[in-house]
Each structure stands twice: as C-alpha cells, then as structure tokens.
Amino acid sequence: LVGEGYNRWFDKSFSLVVTQDGKAGVNWEHSWGDGATIMHMINNVHTDYLRQAPVEGSGDGGVPVVRVDPVYSDSVLAHLERAKSKFEAAKSGYEIVDFNFGGFGKNAIKKFGMSPDSVS
Question: Which residue among the candidates 30, 40, 46, 79 is catalytic per the annotation?
C-alpha cells in the first residue's frame, strides 16, 4: 500500500519492473525459499546474457515495432475504476511511520537462535 500501488503486485514471488526508459529491476519476496531461488535465477539470466554475442540486425530492416494499445470494454473499465476506488479507500486508512528500535540488535536475536529477519 505504498505509492500509487497500481503497477506492483506484492502477492507474487517476484515482479520484473521495467521503466519507460528501458531500465529494469526485480523486486522479490524476501523469504528464505523465494528470495534465494529468485536471486539464483536472476544471476543465471545475467551471466547467460553476458556470455551471448550482441544481437546484430540482419540489414533487411527486420520487423517494425508497432505500439499496441489495449482496448477495454466499458464494463471492464468500470470494474477497474471500482477496484482503484477500493484500493484508494484501503490505502487512505494507513500511515507509514519509521520507527528505529534501539533496545537490542541482531546479535541479541541471534543469541536466541533466531533470524533477525523473523523479528519485526
């Protein structure tokens, strides 16, 4: 429920985020299973990408890039507006407050055999 909230899905294991200028990043869930698996996958993709020869054009112009704008029915647009309104109503009831707890740190948590990630 942070920011606009219209283009991120935090209920998924990971989201590939690509900006309008072509930059990309990955946001992933931070549990021990999903986080390690996704990072391993991203590292493999990056390593494989670096090993590939650059893609060269064939010289024939290739296939032109054509922008595709989706067309939605009035019914779908109404559903989207209702969902957006519900999201805005839910988001308006929350406040993000930064709180820095200094009573103990990660080393104290580790003494009890726990992961600092499990304490929030």
Answer: 30
Give kind and range of the element (H or E) at residue 28. Answer: strand 24-28
- CB under 8 A, 24+ apart: contacts of 6-11: 6/84, 6/87
Query: Measured between alpha carbons, how far is 79 from 75 in angstroms, rounded to an integer?
Result: 6
pLDDT (tens digit per residue) in 23-44: 888 887 776 677 788 888 889 9
**Predicted TM-score of the model (pTM):** 0.45
- Residue 57 in contact with residue 67, Cβ under 8 Å? no
| Residue 30 annotated among the catalytic residues of the structure | yes
To 5 degrees, how large is the angle CA 33–CA 15–CA 43? Answer: 60
Distance (Å, whole) CA 105 – CA 89: 36
What distances in angstroms separate CA 100 from CA 97, 117, 120, one per listed residue? 10, 15, 11
Q: How far is CA 59 from CA 52, 62, 63, 64, 66, in A?
A: 20, 7, 11, 13, 19
Q: What is the mean pLDDT of the chain?
A: 81
